[in-house]
Amino acid sequence: MKRWVKMIRFIGGLCLVTLLGIAYVSYLCHNSLCLAPEHSSLSPRYSVSSSSSSSKSEIPSSPASLVKQIGGFPSKVNIESVAFEEAYDMGFDITSRDVIVFLHIQKTGGTTFGRHLVRDLNLENPCNCPKKRKRCDCFRPNTVNEQWLFSRYSTGWKCGLHADWTELTDCVEGALDEYEGTSRKRRYFFITVLRDPIHRYLSEFRHVQRGATWKSARHWCGGQEFTSLPHCYKGSNWTGVELDEFMNCSYNLAHNRQTRMLADLTLAGCYTGYNTTADQLERDRILLQSAKQNLASMAYFGLTEEQATSQYIFERTFHLDFANPFDQANATLSAQAIAELTPAQIERVRQLNSLDNELLEFARQLLHERFKKLKRRDPHFRRNWLRVIHPHKSERTTETH
């Protein structure tokens, strides 16, 4: 009898140890892709295709070659996303199921652009923007709750504060279904604005120095919200931080922010082991290629430093005109901020944003390619371009003819 009691206790002990071991491993591996093959951190939504000549796909050197080679990371996102060519050929149908989704990256001029979208488009049924309210109702004609614009100033931050590409593609359809009270398939026209990385980074630094944190951002990725990302500061904010301290925080999300927010983060293990030295070069390669691919696949993007070109491309792509032109912001303040830095600090900022620098060069080339293509197709280019760069002169010219 005693032998049976001892055996039962032994088996019970083994079961308890096993259960505790499973619980411990699950805790350590929470969303860390522990069960994936070694060196593999790819999302189940994506896979990296390999060619016969190389086991790793190379990042194309030019926008045109990337657009042609867009199979680097084949997308399995379950929403219908409209690319630039299709947007131009078919146009944007505000009366049907088309939705513009604005991916708003911090300190790129997105706030001004977002206001242009809700207040300045020439529409038969413009957005309704009540006084003393930040958001506008951008409903389709003859509807009371169907949104054609998904942005901060229309729907609000439905997918989280400054939601990135990973969050938006996973969230936007469900968010609109919930908002409109019905489930339906839509066509999504993703758009964004990019800015010179050094100017953007310094602008974010000064914003944080004044007390901004964006601590309510969700950082949703791979089916979960990453709420325990480390902060670079103690207390409620980082007010008064100096630039060197700002740069020295290795997990500062300001570093290469534009690349990270445009990439599919699930391809690189989301935020697990973020900014660790292990396989960092490979992670950077994946994020940069993904960001380039997603940017090239967007219906539209603009550059803060090229407002007129950006406006023209938007208007011709969507066949929608703005009542008020985009203002080219004076770069004096940014130039003054850079002039206050030492050469070593400028170089450090450049190094911390090396991916964004390469992304911007890619974006600049792609923007000019799109501009040239639209110019060739535009039988009224001179009139349309003049209206963008000299709106008042364009009005007088129209009146005299």
TrEMBL record:
Enzyme type, top EC level: transferase
Per the record, membrane topology reads: Single-pass type II membrane protein
Q: Name one Pfam family in it.
A: Sulfotransfer_2
GO molecular function, one example?
A: heparan sulfate 6-sulfotransferase activity
UniProt lists the family membership as follows: Belongs to the sulfotransferase 6 family.
- Give the UniProt subcellular location, in the record's own words: Membrane
Q: Where is it chiefly localized? A: membrane
Q: Which domain of life is it from?
A: Eukaryota
- This chain belongs to which protein, by name? Heparan-sulfate 6-O-sulfotransferase
InterPro entries reported in the protein's UniProt record:
Heparan_SO4-6-sulfoTrfase, P-loop_NTPase, Sulfotransferase
The entry's function note states: 6-O-sulfation enzyme which catalyzes the transfer of sulfate from 3'-phosphoadenosine 5'-phosphosulfate (PAPS) to position 6 of the N-sulfoglucosamine residue (GlcNS) of heparan sulfate.
What EC numbers are recorded for this enzyme? Answer: 2.8.2.-
Could you name the Gene Ontology cellular component terms for this entry? membrane
UniProt entry keywords in alphabetical sequence: Glycoprotein, Membrane, Signal-anchor, Transferase, Transmembrane, Transmembrane helix
Q: Which reaction does it catalyse?
A: alpha-D-glucosaminyl-[heparan sulfate](n) + 3'-phosphoadenylyl sulfate = 6-sulfo-alpha-D-glucosaminyl-[heparan sulfate](n) + adenosine 3',5'-bisphosphate + H(+)
Signal peptide position in this chain? Answer: none
Fetch the SUPFAM superfamilies from UniProt. P-loop containing nucleoside triphosphate hydrolases
